[in-house]
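My main concern about presentation is that the manuscript never shows what a single data entry looks like. For the editor and my fellow referees, an illustration may be useful. For illustration, here is how one protein appears when written out as sequence plus structure tokens:

***
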Amino acid sequence: MRSLCTTMTAVAVTLSFFVAGASAQEEKKAEPAQPKHVALLKDAKPQTGVINVYQKEDQLFAELNASNYSGEYIILISIAKGIGEGPLLGGMTWGFGDDWIWKFRKIDDKVHIIRRNVRFKAKSSTPEASAVANAYTDSVLYSLPIITKGPKGGDLVDLSSVFMSDLPQIGEVLPGFVFSPQKSTWAKVKDFEDNLELEVAATYQSSGRAEIETVADSRGVTIHVHYSISKLPSTGYSPREADPRVGYFLTVVKDYSEDGKNNDERFVRYINRWHLEKADPSAKLSPPKKPIIFWIENTVPFKYRAAIRDGIEEWNKAFEQAGFVDAIEVRQQPDNADWDPEDINYNTFRWMTSSAGFAMGPSRVNPYNGQILDADIIFDADFLSFWKHEFETFTPESVAAMTGGDLEPTDAHEEQPRLPMDMRQCALGHGMSREFALGATALAGVAKMEPKQREEELEKLIMQGLKEVTMHEVGHTLGLRHNFKASTWKSLKEINDPKNAGKALVASVMDYSPINLMPEGQPQGDYYAQTIGPYDYWAIEYGYKTGTAEELQKLASRSGEDGLDYTTDEDTVGTDPDPFSNRFDLGADPVEYAKSRSQVVKDLMPGLVERMAEEGEDYTKVRRAFNILLSQIGQSTFFTARVVGGLNTSRSHKGDEGARAPIEPLDPKQQRAALDVLEQNLFNDKPFDFPTEIYSYLAPSRWRHWGTSSSTQKDFPIHDYIAMWQDRALSQLLSSVTLQRIHDTELKIPADKDAFTTAELIERLTDAIFSEVDSIGKAKKDAKYSNRQPAISSLRRNLQRIYLRRMSNMAMGRSLAPEDCQTIAYMELSELKDGIDKLLSGDMALDSYTKAHLKESSDRIAKVLDAQLTLASP
């Protein structure tokens, strides 16, 4: 019995075990399976914000919900860390056109990332809106599979393929490089309520053949690309329409809802500006509800912070006239700040060391309405370096860049290199280095100044220049464009009148103003503008003052007032007619400016070697100072060349009080005075009669390593250098654009009134440039010439060859000059040959150089006169 009971008990226990096991298995099967996202997001770092994201190693997942699908996002791209080359500079905003607007659209089991087409619109629910929808489409950039539902019930997608790519198209400016996803990583992922900040350490790889001095190995170039993603704000902002009389950056859309009245092209142009509202709308002066706050980065050297702060805050004066008190605030970034300068919520003043020598004030804008959402001012410390390598030997390319670029018409359809928008805007910092070097050279030449006083004066010059550049770049961040006519508001005498101390030097700090430097013994005012000018007040008032359309039109109609003239970049290229629209000119009269600058150079040349080379130093500063001084003669006299055939332009509208006509020919007397200066200061050898001992000390840098560009010619190429500037001025005077303009102006002026003609220009140039043909013939028969003291100096012979080549091409129809000019050139060459032949047939004992030069010139002219003209086919 006991044995049976024992057996039964064992069986029961065994059955109980199996039953329990079966129940446990059934219970385990009954548990719900874990959602797919659990395993997918294991160890991922979640961040909640404007878009919920999860970062897991090299992957970034986003969970999109109904709110994400219904909104639009502005994508702002910048370079957080660059390579110090070309446009790839840390701190730069990036983009090749409109700022990007993205929309997430769910299509079945995928999410499309769509870049919206922001340039065309029509009022919703209208036939025009349907027409626009049918005519213009958005761009689908990515199609992302929906992996699963996320922890919050949204659609989970992997954004890695979006940002681990050449999304910003940096490859466009790095030919030969491709984005490498395997070598790229996430540098930062920060999610906030209003914005998502992403930073990719983006590596671009190449074969390694390219040599980039600032990169260790070109097989892997890493650039930190920052993306700021924020929901397009709906703030009640009202866009303001632009007016061509007031210079703002524009946001332009084509609105097919417009009836086309007075706007056949249907363009609607908005100015780019901040959303400023008065805290008290009824008050004449009120603080804004939300001020514009600029943070001075902690990278800015301590010694410069006060000047920079003053330059930023200077604009509050203009905002007061527009009705705002303390519209701009300046704050110092603390050393322990936990925010990124690229964050859209922070406007920063950034200090860089990329050796690029620039300053710029880029901003990011809502492409629908022109509202500025974010701005950063970027200074490269290198523009404070006076004695740069490029000042050792200027080239025709650098001379052209200093004087407006191409002087002949260019093909508008010619493919231009693709550059980010900000690289096409402001280049003030590049020229400031040259101006600072000129100022330092001038201060070194003041004999009565003690060393300590000279050092203090140089510090004053730098701080004034730094404040002016700051004001200029802040102006850009407020929406203002360049105004290159502002520097001609006052005469040099008025600018330097002690009674005007502390007042505006120029009508706007949005010009590129050179250092204000007067010849020794004349009153000397501030080196640079220290306050904004009347145009700046007016422009800010137009952009930011609360007012009706009628009130704004009335404000813009003040354009004819003194100091409110406006021209900008597209008015200041080489082929433009207005000689008062230049970069780095100063004063109301280009002729007076050229005379003043030439006198400054004349005063500074004697003793240059002793002043510029300190004991124990080499002589590179001497060469660079000499080069800069010569460039002052060339650049200032070039400005006078633009007076010849020049037209004074105005943007004023009909009915504007005090307005000039849109286009006015310059007084012929003024044009002749400009030619006088050219003949005396550039087409002459006397201004270049420098102390001969100076040439032995114009030594280039002798360093040869990365980051340097030592000159291949150790001695200074004085003939080539002077000829380069003479050729540039002749290119301006004899360009087909200038000659066509003068020729047309002759017809537009009544015959009984004085007018400057193309015949007068060509005849006068021939007489001035080949004046020796007449003067040698009239000299005494016993005049003695030698190869050391030739009848025609080497500088003049070079000038004559340049002129002869241009005249020959014109006479043979090889230029686009009017045919009347071609025939005048033909006649002038014929008469010149007669004069040369008469001189050569006489009994005057000429030196070998002059005789050979004249003989060759005569033979050249003969071939031109005998050549068959090739006429353009009809």
